[in-house]
Design brief:
Blueprint lengths: L1 E6 L7 H14 L4 E5 L5 H5 L9 H6 L3 H7 E3 L6 E4 L15 H4 L1 H11 L27 E5 L6 H9 L2 E6 L3 H20 L5 E7 L7 H14 L12 H8 L10 H23 L15
Parallel strand pairs: 1-5, 1-6, 2-4, 2-5, 6-7
Antiparallel strand pairs: 3-4
Helix pairs in contact: 1-11, 6-7
InterPro entries: CobQ/CobB/MinD/ParA_Nub-bd_dom, DNA_Partitioning_ATPase, P-loop_NTPase
Organism: Pseudonocardia asaccharolytica DSM 44247 = NBRC 16224
Protein name: Chromosome partitioning protein ParA
């Protein structure tokens, strides 16, 4: 099971758009996925059209037992194969600026239940049906977990980095967002040294790029000079299809316009990079399986 956090320490750059786009790509390619809505704005929960649950991620952070986790996971309205650990405004109560180690480990402890829940496996390959969350079959197995972080470096984002294998740093090509990427990169490196030596930055995703915009071209070049090969070669164009699909509570992969197809291709490439990084990394569980190629 590969755990990926999407983060930025500047709001409004499209961090949630990247989390949703990556989840949509995983659904489209048959990669069973859990999407964790750690942002108190709960935009992921709204956009994926999940039914009401008896608990949310806030309760999971209060008490990371398996029974609480099951009550907080719901199937998305996007289709079978994508579940959501639902978010809520109440999650903000866990966003302490100076959390202790016991607070930071709770999300990782909850997600570890997905790795070790024997009731969730049916002996098939990862990605095969294993029952709906809350049933006796449990909430898995998942090949991929995507955590959408809030745009701040408090307990919630640090909890995600403590639990994650990889981090996708999201920015748009503006001056202030570039500095936010640097702070996010530093946060990944700090958390790696503090508590999670297996954590690695997967790369920098540039969102809302407009063609033939000199300011955008300048900032993209600046990012490539700072971060080198960590900057993904594919950038996300500024397309109205993204907002239209989110407004309709649909994955961008299901929005049949030229702009949507252009965006979807970027997310397919991102998914391939995520899965390849997982196959190269040291597995946390002997039950892990190699990821399939994405074409």
């Amino acid at each position: 099971m590969q755990v990926v956090a999407t983060l930025s320490l500047k709001g409004g750059v499209g961090k949630t758009t990247v989390a949703l786009g990556l989840a949509g790509a995983a659904l489209h390619h048959g990669v069973r996925t859990l999407l964790v809505d750690l942002d108190p704005q709960a935009n992921v929960t709204i956009a994926t059209d999940v039914p009401a649950t008896a608990a949310t991620v806030a309760e999971v952070l209060d008490d990371p037992r398996r029974s609480v986790l099951r009550r907080a996971i719901a199937p998305s309205g996007w289709g079978d194969g994508l579940d959501v650990l639902v978010g809520a405004e109440q999650t903000e109560r866990h966003n302490h600026p100076e959390p202790g180690a016991k607070q930071l480990i709770k999300l990782a402890r909850a997600l570890s239940r997905l790795r070790t829940d024997d009731d969730a496996t049916d002996g098939g390959e990862p990605g095969s049906p294993a029952g709906e969350p809350g049933t006796t079959n449990g909430p898995g197995p998942y090949r991929l977990v995507i955590i959408d972080c809030p745009p701040s470096l408090g307990q919630l984002t640090r909890s995600a980095l403590t639990a994650a294998d990889r981090a996708v740093l999201v920015t748009d090509p503006t001056m202030f967002a570039v500095s936010g990427v640097q702070r996010a990169f530093d946060a990944v490196q700090t958390e790696r040294q503090r508590s999670n030596p297996g954590l690695q930055p997967l790369g920098v995703m540039i969102n809302r790029v407009r063609p033939r915009n000199s300011e955008h071209e300048f900032r993209i070049e600046e990012l490539r000079e700072i971060f080198g090969p960590l900057v993904f070669s594919g950038v996300l164009p500024d397309r109205s299809a993204i907002q239209q699909a989110q407004g309709a509570c649909m994955p961008i992969q299901a929005w049949d316009t030229p702009g949507a197809r252009e965006v979807s291709a970027v997310f397919t490439a991102l998914l391939g990079r995520v899965l390849r990084s997982g196959s190269r990394s040291q597995p946390r569980s002997q039950a892990e399986h190699a990821a399939p190629p994405i074409t």
